[in-house]
Amino acid sequence: MLRQKCTTDQKILEWSLRDLISVHFMLANKFLSDDRYSNSVWASVTEKDLDEMNHLEKKSLEILQFNLNVHEDEFKIWEKSI
Fold first, then answer.
1. Of 68, 71, 24, whose CA–CA distance to 46 is shortest?
2. Are 12 and 59 in contact (CB under 8 A)?
3. How far apart, in whole angstroms, are the C-alpha atoms of residue 77 and residue 51?
């Protein structure tokens, strides 16, 4: 879903791969774990400013329309590609 959304949102195309990976690990951690790391911990680990991490998180969630679920068909397509 993010791949589809990225083509329509130029701003996210300007993010580095490191930014994308960092913020999506952070989102996955929050989604999957009740005992999650805070944004300040993620900012420290990724050597990013806290405000920047907050911005990346907010923008990612907006692009994904706050839907972090992956449909089974989409997962199978991704799984076959690796």
1. 24
2. yes
3. 35
